[in-house]
């Protein structure tokens, strides 16, 4: 049993000054002002004076890190998961980009298996399969050799029970709406992305069960005043939750600010879309089967096309606050409650009794100080 005391606690519904959280058996038991907590016997206390206590971050789109790429080597999920707590991430969706469908099957085996003995780290919640059902004209850093049309047969065993939580497809492709209906009926979240869809095609996708948008503005037609396109449909339709890469490179900071003003009512999730170079120095790294050139700020193909990001999730939160002027309390749902709600996981992404004890202690300048996952300290700065 652990008690974290004297923290400024962000429950997402209120801020408790000099608060305490009692944790037992991996779950939150009690949240109250420190002075009101009754400590049981054999409890370990952590003094969090001067620190913010917040829910752990959830990343819905991560391609790899520390030199490792999930698509080319699915076993990389576990060592990357061990690294992620220092970035504030306590659970995530390993992302498999466009590749032979056998690569998805291999990743399913990993993500549905037990972690290695002694493992401590962020927990994979299932896969995000980004492709191969994408439009060739918006392929981005995806290999066009593997792009194909969606069919029910190709996704026969794609479900949350089989490790598939989120699937990105282009809704305008032949067969895409039928596959979107099928996947959404199974409980897999379907996202629109890497798409040339116009406003009507995007809306038809929402009618078919699409409920997410993959990295808003990137790999989709630009917003136009006579044809809002997929971007406009995602911004306008309350059925859609939106993913956004807030690194200042994929989307201009002023446009991030505009999106925030439009959809901050529980429909915005920050994602990193980070690739193998996360946590590594500049150099050459792999994304799928492409070599990517990485400098201090971006990851690009030789053509100049952006190929994922170098973004840490804690940096994304600080960026959102800097770009928009919002408060920490306002920013937190974009990386906690909103992604958890999208995935249908009410025990994740919030500080409340009976929820998973996935927590962060942040310094006053919002650096990660301590990460707790399932009630155990897995990282301390």
CATH class of the largest domain: Alpha Beta
Distance between the ends = 22 Å
Mean pLDDT metric: 97
> The biggest beta sheet, please?
9 strands, parallel
Which fold name fills CATH's third level, the topology of the largest domain?
TIM Barrel
Number of helical regions: 9
Tally of individual domains: 2
CATH architecture classification name of the largest domain: Alpha-Beta Barrel
Class by alpha and beta content: alpha/beta
E-strand count: 22
Q: So what's the oligomer here? A: single chain
Compute the gyration radius: what is it? 20 Å
CATH superfamily of the largest domain: Metal-dependent hydrolases
Low-confidence stretches: none
Based on CA inertia axes, which overall geometry fits?
globular
Q: Helical residue percent?
A: 10-25%
Task: Provide an overview of this structure.
The protein has helices at 77-83, 101-111, 176-186, 199-207, 229-236, 253-263, 313-324, 328-331, 337-342; strands at 2-10, 15-24, 27-33, 44-47, 52-55, 57-62, 64-65, 68-69, 89-97, 123-124, 127-130, 164-169, 189-192, 212-213, 241-244, 268-270, 283-287, 290-294, 299-300, 359-362, 368-373, 376-380. It has 381 residues and is α/β, with parallel strands linked by helices. It has two domains: 2-54 and 351-380, Roll (Urease, subunit C, domain 1), CATH 2.30.40.10; 57-342, Metal-dependent hydrolases (TIM Barrel), CATH 3.20.20. The strands form four sheets. Strands 6, 9, 10, 11, 12, 13, 14, 15 and 16 form a nine-stranded parallel sheet that branches. Strands 1, 2, 3, 4, 5, 20, 21 and 22 form an eight-stranded mixed sheet that branches.
């Amino acid at each position: 049993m652990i008690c974290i005391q004297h923290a400024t606690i962000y429950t997402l519904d209120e801020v408790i000054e000099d608060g305490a959280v009692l944790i037992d058996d991996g779950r939150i038991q009690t949240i109250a002002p420190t002075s009101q907590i009754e400590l049981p016997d054999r409890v370990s206390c952590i003094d969090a004076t001067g620190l913010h206590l917040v829910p752990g971050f959830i990343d819905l789109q991560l391609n790899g890190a520390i030199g490792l790429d999930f698509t080319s080597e699915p076993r990389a999920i576990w060592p990357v998961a061990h690294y992620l707590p220092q970035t504030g991430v306590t659970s995530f969706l390993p992302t498999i980009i466009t590749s032979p469908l056998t690569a998805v099957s291999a990743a399913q085996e990993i993500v549905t298996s037990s972690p290695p003995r002694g493992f401590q780290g962020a927990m994979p919640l299932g896969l995000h399969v980004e492709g191969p059902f994408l439009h060739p004209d918006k392929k981005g850093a995806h290999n066009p050799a593997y792009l194909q049309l969606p069919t029910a047969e190709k996704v026969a065993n794609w479900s949350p029970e089989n490790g598939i939580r989120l699937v990105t497809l282009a809704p305008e492709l032949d067969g895409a709406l039928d596959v979107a209906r099928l996947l959404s009926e199974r409980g897999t979240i379907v996202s629109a992305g890497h798409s040339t869809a116009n406003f009507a095609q995007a809306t038809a996708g929402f009618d078919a069960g699409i409920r997410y948008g993959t990295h808003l503005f990137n790999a989709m037609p630009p917003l136009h005043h006579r044809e809002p396109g997929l971007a406009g449909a995602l911004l306008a339709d309350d059925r859609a939750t939106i993913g956004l890469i807030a690194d200042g490179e994929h989307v201009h900071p002023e446009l991030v600010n505009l999106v925030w003003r439009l959809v901050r009512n529980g429909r915005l999730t920050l994602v990193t879309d980070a690739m193998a170079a996360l946590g590594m120095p500049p150099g050459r790294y792999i994304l799928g089967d492409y070599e990517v050139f990485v400098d201090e700020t971006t990851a690009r193909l030789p053509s100049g096309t952006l190929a994922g990001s170098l973004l840490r999730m804690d940096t994304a939160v600080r960026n959102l606050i800097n770009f928009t002027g919002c408060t920490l309390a306002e920013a937190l749902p974009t990386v906690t409650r909103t992604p958890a709600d999208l995935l249908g996981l009410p025990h994740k992404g919030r500080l409340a009794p009976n929820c998973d004890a996935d927590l962060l202690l942040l310094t006053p300048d919002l650096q990660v100080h301590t990460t707790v996952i399932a009630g155990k300290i897995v990282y301390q700065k």
